[in-house]
Amino acid sequence: HAGPSLCSHKVRFTLMEKGVPFVSHDLNIEMTHWSIPEHYHPDYVRLRLLGKSTEEYAVDFTGQSSVQKEGFDAAVVPVLVDHKLSKVIVDSSKICTYIDEFGEGP
What we know:
This protein is mainly alpha-helical. About 35% of the residues lie in helices and about 10% in strands. It has helices at about 5-20, 40-50, 65-70, 90-100; strands at about 80, 85-90.
């Protein structure tokens, strides 16, 4: 996730609301003159690709991150990794739905 990301906020709030324990990996997504944002790191992109299903790839930058509306972008936050079920879920809406369905909280 990334601190300033609205999509990351949605997922963190859902996890906390459901009382689901989680480990957070905060990524620096800001571009600077001396570093590339961490969500463009090859390891992160490979992790997101594990969660891609049948969506088409995004072809343009619109400022929106909905996989359903814009297509799959391999460098967007957040990502949920469910180690118990060996699943990678991408897209904040899908992640929140997944947490609601499989989270152990209320």
